[in-house]
Design goal:
Layout lengths: L6 E4 L3 H12 L4 E5 L10 E2 L8 E2 L6 H4 L16 E2 L3 E6 L5 E4 L3 H8 L1 H16 L1 H8 L10 H11 L3 H6 L4 H11 L11 H14 L4 E2 L4 H13 L3 E4 L15 E3 L3 H8 L5 H8 L6 E9 L13 E6 L2 H12 L9 E4 L14 E9 L8 H11 L3 H4 E7 L1 H7 L15 H5 L16 E3 L13 H11 L5
Parallel strand pairs: 1-2, 1-10, 2-9, 6-12, 10-16
Antiparallel strand pairs: 3-4, 5-8, 6-7, 11-14, 11-15, 12-13, 13-14
Helix pairs in contact: 1-10, 1-18, 3-4, 4-9, 6-9, 8-9, 8-13
């Protein structure tokens, strides 16, 4: 006879494992099923180019991993997780010789911007960093809840509800404008849309409060630590099992799905009503990503050597980022895509053989595009780092289609679990009193298509588990 479980979790990404850990900590029996050969989802690390070069397949930098209220409750360090902090969290080059660096210190960053823009930065960011421990729990939970600290949350929200273009216009010079264009673009939305300013604020704040660290050895270390802790609690994990139907799962009291709405509809089959299927079918996916992993013979030869202090680098002028994000939202090819780069091996030498390096790069592109963005990406890097092309030993290109083949949740290259419009942040995936529940009483969604959305923080899984523990698993 098959063993019966209190919970079966489908998908061993950060959210699926977080849900499993939260349930196991509450004394419930849990089994996790993962289709791939290893746990990981959006946090795998693999030798994509040559032996000894460890590349993060999806996520690489984790301000919300270190900042996750749930992860901070767990003894993940005892299970192998160690955080590596770059000298500077992130930087934004303005030209080959000029760049603005966002430091751990608000004051140092304000001094870097200088003048009126430095004062504006200090006045906007410093109070939010100081109050972040009161704001963070509301940001990383369903927003349709009464905040525990409404005054602090309102201080963030009254600016965050604005469009990023409005926030950008409050600064006079390009370094500050580019800085906030880059951070706001993490929304994958046109920067003229309301609520994009919240992303513009969020990422500098996390840089000052938590830093933008790498997981030592690669992002795989995060999910490996979660999996190890789950096993220590008596949970079970089985890999290499692709779930095709909810009806074929082991006997259980509850089911948790670390999948996007379209996959849930396939798994549930005809058990869902037509009206619910239509409602969930209106969930909007976000734009795509075009990713390149590089094995390099040396660090990136940035013309501005200060960029070697930064773990993450945003590439693009404020205007080009605004234009690019607007175009990809409409499915149009941008002239200059917004590019994000991370250089983990500069700070975590174990990522590459001695003297060698890795570079992680992706661009925001139209979802599902088949256009080859490699020439544009490499030209942008070459402009800032003359001789970059000569350092390339090998590259691994992942188109939006490749990302979807790697993980069906990444349909069309959408790495965010669905668009983060204001409506889909407030009502994710659909308007509901319980965003994790479904019409099937014992089935819960726990992916980044639920609040609080994208990021390696595990909070979607944590809140889904809490929902079940108050109902079917009480």
């Amino acid at each position: 006879m098959q063993r019966s479980y209190d919970a079966v979790v489908v998908g061993a990404g950060p959210n699926g494992l977080a849900a499993a850990v939260a349930l196991a900590r509450a004394g419930r029996s849990v089994k996790v099923l993962e289709g791939a050969a290893t746990v990981g989802g959006g946090s795998r690390t693999m030798e994509l180019t040559q032996p000894g070069f460890r590349h993060d397949v999806c996520s690489a930098v984790h301000p919300l991993g270190l900042g996750s209220p749930f992860f901070r409750q767990l003894p993940l360090e005892e299970h192998g997780l160690r955080w590596v902090h770059p000298v500077t969290p992130f930087a934004h080059p303005i030209s080959p010789r000029e760049a603005v660096l966002v430091h751990r210190s608000v004051e140092t960053t304000a001094e870097e911007l200088g003048g009126a823009d430095g004062e504006e930065y200090r006045d906007r960011i410093a109070p939010l960093v100081e109050a972040w421990d009161k704001i963070e729990p509301s940001i990383l939970s369903p927003l349709l809840r009464i905040p525990r600290h409404p005054v602090a949350m309102a201080r963030f929200g009254w600016v965050g509800i604005l469009s990023a273009t409005t926030l950008i216009k409050s600064f006079r010079h390009e370094p500050a404008k580019a800085l906030f264009a880059g951070t706001s673009a993490h929304s994958f939305l046109p920067l003229s849309k309301r609520f994009t300013a919240a992303y513009g604020l969020l990422y500098p704040i996390t840089a000052h409060r938590w830093g933008w660290p790498f997981a030592a050895g690669g992002s795989q270390a995060i999910v490996d630590a979660l999996a190890s802790y789950l096993l220590s609690l008596g949970g079970e994990i089985e890999t290499g099992v692709w779930v095709e139907s909810l009806a074929k799962l082991p006997p259980n009291r509850s089911i948790f799905l670390d999948v996007t709405p379209d996959i849930f509809l396939r798994l549930a089959g005809d058990t869902l009503s037509d009206s619910y299927r239509r409602r969930l079918g209106r969930f909007r996916r976000g734009p795509g990503a075009f990713k390149i992993d590089y094995a390099l013979s040396s660090p990136v030869p940035w013309a501005n050597h200060r960029l070697l202090d930064a773990g993450t680098i945003h590439i693009g002028s404020s205007q080009s980022i605004i234009e690019a994000e607007a175009r990809i939202w409409k499915g149009k090819e941008p002239d200059r895509p917004f590019i994000l780069a991370a250089q983990p091996s500069v700070f975590d030498p174990g990522r590459a053989p001695d003297g060698r390096h890795t570079l992680w790069v992706y661009a925001h592109v139209p979802r599902g595009t088949t256009v080859d963005f490699r020439p544009k990406i490499e030209q942008e890097i070459e402009n800032l780092a003359p001789g970059f092309s000569e350092t390339i030993i090998e590259r691994c290109v992942s188109t939006p289609g490749d990302l979807e083949l790697y993980n069906p949740n990444l349909a069309g290259g959408d790495i965010t679990g669905g668009a983060h419009t204001l409506k889909q942040v407030l009502f994710r995936p659909i308007p509901s009193r319980n965003p994790y529940g479904t019409p099937l009483d014992n089935v819960f969604l726990c992916s980044s298509s639920t609040p609080p959305g994208a990021g390696v923080h595990g909070m979607c899984g944590y809140w889904a588990a809490r929902s079940a523990l108050r109902s079917v698993l009480a």
